[in-house]
Amino acid sequence: MPRPRRSSERPAVARAQRFLRGRSERPPRAERLAPPSRPRPRSSRPGVPVIDIDDVHKTYSVGDIAVHALRGVSLRIERGEYVAIVGASGSGKTTLMNILGCLDTPTTGIYRLNGLDVRGIDEDSLADVRNREIGFVFQSFNLIPRTRAQANVELPLAYAGLPRTARHERGVGLGDRVHHLPSELSGGQQQRVAIARALVTNPAMILADEPTGALDTVSSGEVLELFSRLNRQGRTIILITHEQSVAAHARRVVRISDGTIIADERGEPAGALG
């Protein structure tokens, strides 16, 4: 007999697919159970910024060499801002993004997300904070290949323990492409699915890492216009990019070089790309 084929999917992707299938097979009562209580950012406090980092340093050890990726970065981002963080390769912008996204921790310094000091939070609770309070958008979309657009959008809600009915009510707005697989969508449509997934938990901010890097000019313009429209609706957008033309769409541009912020500029955003 021929040997069964081994799945080519990455383990994390396979786990996510099993998770979605398992959620759909649970009885209604199980779906209504509330998720465990975890620390939550105090977003209801007036005047609390979404991002507040103070004198953050990040140092990596490479053999006997200490690499200083961030050198005393301080940054405050208020609710409803549209900020682009711009820097060349090796400037520290990716390290800063990882810290803002609670994917890494500072070596020294303070980071408060929506008023919550994330230092010392255990990994499970930090994962919950990421899922509920940060909507990630990546250059490579990071969609589950064999899962339809609707289920990709709903995945953060499933992880958050929300009922299946709520997932379907909140994970909408993809039009006639909602039941298509990622392979059946264009790059721009895939990024729209990724943005919808980022929005579905109503997070404190959208953190977008080079979101137009894999798109053509027309699709890039559409995605940037979507970010601008979301910001006009009150969403906090943080855009990580090395492209000046992309950063020009933000209302505030923070420039980073050699691990330090060298400029922080505000102005009127540019129009959509032509």
How would you sum up this structure, described in words?
By secondary structure, this protein is an alpha/beta fold. The protein has a 6-stranded mixed beta sheet, with helices on both faces. It has a 4-stranded antiparallel beta sheet with strand order 2-1-4-5, with helices on one face. Helix 8 links the parallel strand 7 and strand 8 (237-241). It is built from 9 helices and 10 strands. Helix 7 (187-199) packs parallel to helix 8. It has a domain at 79-105 and 123-266: P-loop containing nucleotide triphosphate hydrolases (Rossmann fold), CATH 3.40.50.300. It is globular and about 50 Å long. It has helices at 11-25, 28-31, 93-100, 123-133, 149-159, 164-170, 187-199, 217-232, 244-247, and strands at residues 51-62, 65-77, 82-86, 108-113, 116-117, 134-138, 205-209, 237-241, 252-257, 260-266.
Give the SSE map.
Layout: H1 11-25, H2 28-31, E1 51-62, E2 65-77, E3 82-86, H3 93-100, E4 108-113, E5 116-117, H4 123-133, E6 134-138, H5 149-159, H6 164-170, H7 187-199, E7 205-209, H8 217-232, E8 237-241, H9 244-247, E9 252-257, E10 260-266
Parallel strand pairs: 3-8, 3-9, 6-7, 7-8
Antiparallel strand pairs: 1-2, 1-4, 4-5, 9-10
Helix pairs in contact: 1-5, 5-6, 5-7, 7-8
